[in-house]
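In this supplementary section we document a worked example of the pipeline. Step one takes a protein sequence of length 639 as its only input; no multiple sequence alignment statistics are reported here. Step two produces a three-dimensional model, which step three serialises into structure tokens for compact storage. The input and output of this example are shown verbatim.
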Amino acid sequence: MWKNLNRSQKKLVSLCAAGGIGGAAYYYQQQQQRRSVYLSALKHQEAAMGSLSTIQKLMPRSVAFAEAVQQQQKLESADIDWKVPSRETMLERLKAGEEFDLLIVGGGATGAGTALDATTRGLKVALVERDDFASGTSSRSTKLVHGGVRYLQKAIMELDHEQYKLVVEALHERKVFLDIAPYLSSQLPIMLPVYKWYQIPYYWVGCKMYDLFAGREALESSYFLTRSKALEAFPMLKKDELVGALVYYDGQHNDARMNVVLALTAVYHGATVANHCEVLDLTKNDKDIINGAVVKDTLTGDEWTIKAKGVINATGPFTDGLRKMDDKENKDIVAPSAGVHIILPNYYSPRNMGLLDPATSDGRVIFFLPWLGNTIAGTTDSPTEVTPNPLPKEDEVQWILEEVSHYLSPDVKVRRSDVLAAWSGIRPLVRDPHAKNTESLVRNHMINVSDNKLLTIAGGKWTTYRAMAMETVDKAIEVFDLKPTDVCHTDKVVLIGSTGYSNTMFIRLVQEFGMDTEVAQHLGHAYGSRAFNVSSIEDPTSVSWPNYGNRLAPNYPYIEAEIRYAVRQEFACTAVDVLARRTRLAFLNAEAALQALPRVIEIMSEELKWNKARQKQEYDSAAQFLVTMGLAADRAGQK
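The serialised model returned by step three reads:
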């Protein structure tokens, strides 16, 4: 690992190892001063050059400049006005019998990211997902876009090269993530409370090294808070023995919507994707090399064969199932681990700041994070079995609540009734044959090619999905002898809705559509510049003005127009697709989602022409799904 550090990093690690905290601090301060001077120079240079809008006003347009402005306007218009092909159109393409360069199985973060990478290189790409985009692990994440503070600790203390590579890669990908999806992701300050004086230098150096390893791609700099300032920022903290806190920055995102938008962006660039399509079997040529798959539309029962030069297995926790479809003798390469999260009211995370405790009663990390107006808390980490919709175990929920109460003021009573939703996500960790428990598993990814040429991508995490996709497509080009017309450039491919987006865009939504500010802000952060498309959808059943902005649930900003948009423009096929992944109501409040369910089914029935039998089926399946989101089982049977 040591040889992979640059000179600055080696210097700081040496000072820390020698116990020279003061020297490390002085060295870091020098580095920050140099960085500040450099950034200041850049700002002066940019000021001298002027912004595009200033140049437009103060100088005659050259032909090149006029073309650049015109091209940008075309991009914005194409993004906002683009009509997504229907799911029926996607299925027709898949059934046409033409051979694809790649067939990707799995529509989670990795699969959708791989489809986008491959199609932007000029390859002919198909993607199928058995359930819905982000229906598995990719919608049940911690919602963080992070480098991994705790992995950094292992990298330094244990000189673990694999952990070091994971942190450095993730810190780079974190910045790319925030750049290409600005409306779905943002920076988030996270507090580390300190209860022992001797821990302050340790935490301080760790946070500064986290900043340093990110280099020029670092977010806001970490900083120390005195006891009084820490309590001011987080009044609910336990005051006894608190000596201060460190605050560092990571990213946060809306994971399921990010996944859906990734799939849509892949379609925008030419990919053919279809959710609710299950792979029944893999096809092989006379040399036993995989050349496609038999697929079933789970909504209609139709079956057909898709031909492809190569098949990529990106099925997350279900990776080994597809590998055994290739060869029953293939050994498992994924060690599934369950992570339980709970949703609490927003008063548990004031000031839009997260809180992390790296030293719980059994060594696991627990956190509070503000998310979409509520507070997400977790997580657990324990071996589990792979199931489509795992139930959160009550003992895991109670463990989170107990740990939460340990570092909050005794005045704050953390009640079980405060839990608005709870879910369990299965992490597809790459199995280490020498590991005794899941905590020692590396959160890195692995690419495997079977004897029959099934290419499998497994492991990893949300933050590094793009890097995983890049490596996967690189390997696919090599293994399947593909002929791309371009190189990977997904670090610059902004996702649909990003072009023309701004943080003040919600003001126009308020002014033009008369909706309240909370709804307008939600639409901007969920759809980006395409929020205007959602807002423009009129409700034919409405008898009063405005014909948009009717909420699904009183305390949440989701509106009825989003249901119609999800069906027309985002491949939503079931009530669960809407409640869990196009909106996030099921993840924020299971009871509120149950109350909204009849109206969701009513609107989807108008759009998709469902009969009474289908409507009942949708209600029953959605109610049972909500049980896996923390809804009381007896509530699921009521209508």
